[in-house]
């Protein structure tokens, strides 16, 4: 499992982009690590799945509500990562009004979750292999703080905890 001081692995995640930029940018776009992390401080949190009860009612909304406080604490971007496809993450972001506040990043095949050792096996519950629930503060690609939840818990990966760590970093 990844730990404080480690560098995030070179993985390709995906993000659904709704506004046109350079070229044909509308739709799923690659988010290449470590390029996307270079020179930035990222508040990254992961959830087991988009549109799931705790993720939709508590986890994502907490980060959306605290976006200005995170910026004041020196965080450049907030990322929500889930083992869903980019279309689902885009729809969930629209539903939660995350646009311009939280980047909704898809780890469609769980490559990132596997690479950092934070997978959650929900095969018996019809959800397959997912990401564990966690949060981390990442500076220039390195993990500064890491908060991994126990099974079925939502106690340490919330926005308030990571915001406190960002202020202290």
Automatic annotation (TrEMBL):
It catalyses: a hydroperoxide + 2 glutathione = an alcohol + glutathione disulfide + H2O. This is Glutathione-dependent peroxiredoxin. The active site is at residue 55. The keyword Oxidoreductase applies. GO terms for biological process: cell redox homeostasis; cellular response to oxidative stress; hydrogen peroxide catabolic process. One of its GO terms (cellular component) is cytoplasm. It comes from the Bacteria. Thiol-specific peroxidase that catalyzes the reduction of hydrogen peroxide and organic hydroperoxides to water and alcohols, respectively. Plays a role in cell protection against oxidative stress by detoxifying peroxides. The lineage of its organism: Bacteria, Pseudomonadati, Pseudomonadota, Betaproteobacteria, Burkholderiales. The keyword Oxidoreductase applies. Keywords: Antioxidant, Oxidoreductase, Peroxidase, Redox-active center. Its EC number is 1.11.1.27. PROSITE patterns: THIOREDOXIN_2 (PS51352). Residues 2-168 form the Thioredoxin domain. Belongs to the peroxiredoxin family. Prx5 subfamily. GO terms for molecular function: thioredoxin peroxidase activity.
């Amino acid at each position: 499992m990844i730990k404080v001081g480690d560098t995030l692995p070179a993985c390709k995640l995906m993000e659904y982009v709704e506004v046109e930029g350079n070229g044909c940018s509308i739709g799923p776009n690659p988010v290449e690590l470590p390029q996307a992390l270079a020179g930035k401080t990222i508040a990254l949190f992961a959830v087991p799945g988009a549109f799931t009860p705790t993720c939709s009612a508590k986890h994502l909304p907490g980060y959306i509500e605290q976006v200005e406080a995170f910026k004041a604490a020196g965080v450049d971007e907030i990322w929500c990562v889930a083992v869903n496809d980019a279309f689902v993450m885009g729809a969930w972001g629209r539903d939660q009004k995350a646009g311009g506040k939280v980047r909704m990043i898809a780890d469609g095949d769980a490559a990132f979750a596997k690479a950092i050792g934070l997978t959650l096996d929900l095969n018996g519950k019809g959800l397959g292999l997912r990401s564990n629930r966690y949060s981390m503060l990442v500076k220039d690609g390195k993990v500064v703080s890491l908060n991994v939840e126990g099974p079925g818990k939502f106690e340490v990966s919330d926005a308030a905890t990571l915001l406190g760590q960002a202020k202290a970093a």
